[in-house]
């Protein structure tokens, strides 16, 4: 990430990272983390605890609300206030870090197809 930001002359404050909580807390991400004095990358960590609990049989597909987490992370990176949602475990505006704790929703395949069809129609109408 640092090499790519340097290669493209991208300010670290314009970088948004969505990764596992363990990844963004790893030592190798230290140079990406904002400090109280310097605005660096916005880090969005996903705590997989609830997801791991709900991994289930082949007859179900677990839906992770990844689009919503990306949308929230982008809005927070732009300086907006955090919405009051259960998926957000913690948020530090100064250090530019949010931790998500998503829950997977088991759905049958036909329900999933219908959900995606409705989302597609909503996006087309926008």
Describe this structure in words.
By secondary structure, the protein is an alpha/beta fold. Helix content is 36%, strand content 20%. A 4-stranded mixed beta sheet has the order 1-2-5-4. Strand 1 (16-20), helix 2 and strand 2 form a beta-alpha-beta unit. The two termini are 33 Å apart. The model has no long low-confidence stretch (mean pLDDT 88).
Compact description:
With 126 residues, the chain is α/β, with parallel strands linked by helices.
Please specify the SSE layout and strand pairing.
Elements (H helix, E strand, L loop, with lengths): L1 H6 L8 E5 H4 L17 E5 L2 H6 L6 E3 L2 H12 L10 E5 L4 E4 L4 E3 L1 H17 L1
Parallel strand pairs: 1-2, 2-5
Antiparallel strand pairs: 3-6, 4-5
Helix content: 25-40%
How far is the N terminus from the C terminus? 33 Å
Rg is: 17 Å
Any idea what the shape is? globular
Series of H and E elements = HEHEHEHEEEH
Mean pLDDT: 88
Largest sheet: 4 strands, mixed
Query: Low-confidence parts, pLDDT < 50 over ≥5 residues?
Result: none
Oligomer: single chain
* Main sheet: strand order: 1-2-5-4
Structural class: alpha/beta
Features:
globular; 5 helices; alpha/beta; 126 residues; 6 strands; four-stranded mixed sheet
């Amino acid at each position: 990430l640092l090499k790519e930001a340097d290669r493209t002359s991208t300010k670290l404050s314009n970088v948004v990272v969505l990764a596992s909580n363990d990844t963004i807390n790893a030592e190798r991400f230290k140079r990406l983390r904002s400090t109280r004095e310097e605005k660096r990358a916005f880090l969005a960590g996903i705590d997989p605890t609830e997801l791991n609990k709900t991994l289930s049989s082949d007859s179900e597909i677990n839906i992770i609300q990844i689009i919503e987490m990306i949308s929230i992370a982008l809005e927070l990176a732009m300086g907006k206030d955090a919405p009051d949602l259960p998926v957000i475990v913690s948020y530090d505006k100064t250090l530019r870090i949010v931790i998500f704790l998503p829950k997977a929703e088991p759905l049958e395949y036909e329900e999933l197809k219908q959900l995606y069809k409705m989302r597609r129609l909503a996006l087309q109408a926008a």
